[in-house]
Write a structure and sequence with these properties.
Layout lengths: L28 H15 L15 H5 L4 E9 L5 E2 L2 E2 H14 L3 E13 L4 H18 L2 E10 L7 E11 L15 E4 L5 H10 L16 H10 L5 E4 L4 H13 L2 E5 L7 H10 L12 E5 L4 H9 L8 E7 L6 E4 L5 E3 L13
Parallel strand pairs: 4-5, 9-12
Antiparallel strand pairs: 1-6, 2-3, 4-6, 7-10, 7-11, 8-10, 9-11, 12-13
């Protein structure tokens, strides 16, 4: 892809102090050294190298991927910053890549804005930036521009990240929650609730020794495999905050249909199931960072499942329900006891600062 010509190489700064100070947000040499040392060195790529106030691309190069631009942004305030299976940096890249991919876009470029609390260790920032860089490479995207602000101690909790992503939707792909139709099948690509359970376990508030690891992962490659096998796919959503239950309600409301899922078919780790029983949580509302809800026409359901199961991030894919012509916007679950219960959208916050 063509980018602006590379400028003459300049000297890059380096930080010798162990912690971030307010001077690192002041716009002078200290700030340049922080950005060079932590972010530019980790994200190094041709589009970032000019270090202008914006990244620049040829529209003709973008148009090679498709005929529509996809654009999304998200902020990440997860607590703790590091957890089993990931960290705030990996989470920020995966979250934005996945938001593009579920719309049928090929993710291409990300920006990163960091708000850093005075007193944060520089090595912690380096770890986060390197994690972002590694995850971006794995997802096939580049972090090409950004911003850094330093606030006084107590004004934020260590580090907050905002990532914005640009991708291109491939010609002929049309996905949307309003496209679900009666008879369509509801699929998920694996076990649910791992991220929410991993975060709560990492906080240590419940004094539980949990082996649960977050499912945080970029899903664009899996979604490519899915769409190739099931080109008639109606909708894809990533089940993050609010979990699968909230996504299903959004799809039911947007399409004016009802959705019926089967508790026996809903994949859960025994550890997550037990975790939820102990704490009185419903796993359908737990956040996921590597799981999608897919709506496909019935004739493509088997092909979609088989394709996802060939991918490492879809090995435990399952059909959990179907779209029905019942009460518009209603989601119900057939329980293991043979009854039915209404699955409402999440009200309030089950677990704060989950992503």
């Amino acid at each position: 892809m063509n980018v602006m010509p590379m400028p003459r190489k300049r000297s890059f700064g380096h930080i010798s102090v162990p912690k971030v100070t307010l001077a690192h947000g002041g716009g002078g040499k200290a700030m340049k050294d922080l950005i060079d040392d932590v972010f530019v060195s980790a994200f190094d790529n041709a589009a970032l190298a000019p270090l202008e106030d914006q990244a620049r691309f040829d529209l003709s190069d973008l148009a090679r991927y498709g005929d529509r631009l996809a654009f999304t942004t998200d902020s990440f305030v997860v607590d703790p910053l590091f957890f089993p299976g990931g960290d705030i940096g990996k989470l920020a890249v995966c979250g934005t890549v996945n938001d593009l991919a579920v719309g049928g876009a090929q993710p291409l470029y990300l920006s990163c804005a960091a708000i850093v609390e005075e007193g944060v260790e520089v090595d912690l920032l380096r770890r986060i930036a390197l994690s972002m860089a590694m995850t971006a490479r794995a997802a096939g995207v580049e972090i090409v521009t950004g911003d850094t602000k330093v606030v006084q101690k107590g004004a934020c909790d260590k580090v907050f990240l905002t990532t914005t992503g640009i991708g291109v939707i491939r010609t002929g792909i049309v996905l949307g929650a309003d496209r679900a139709r009666p008879g369509d099948v509801v699929l998920v690509n694996g076990v649910l609730g791992d991220h929410g359970a991993a975060i709560l376990g990492a906080r240590g508030d419940m004094a539980l020794d949990s082996p649960i690891v977050s499912d945080c992962a970029p899903l664009n490659d899996l979604i490519d495999v899915l769409i190739a096998a099931a080109p008639g796919t109606r909708a894809i959503r990533d089940a993050t905050r609010g979990g699968v239950a909230t996504v299903l309600n959004e799809i039911a409301q947007a399409s004016g249909a009802a959705i019926d899922i089967d508790e026996r078919a809903t994949p859960l780790r025994e550890e997550v199931r037990g975790f939820c029983e102990i704490l009185g949580l419903d796993p359908l509302y737990l956040a996921n960072e590597g799981k999608i809800v897919v709506i496909v026409p019935p004739e493509e359901a088997d092909g979609a499942l088989s394709a996802m199961r060939t991918h490492p991030l879809g090995a435990a894919a399952a059909a959990i329900g179907e779209i029905r012509s019942g009460e518009p916007g209603r989601v119900t679950m057939r329980t293991v006891f043979g009854g039915n219960r209404i699955v409402d959208m999440l009200v309030g916050e089950q677990l704060p600062r989950i992503c």
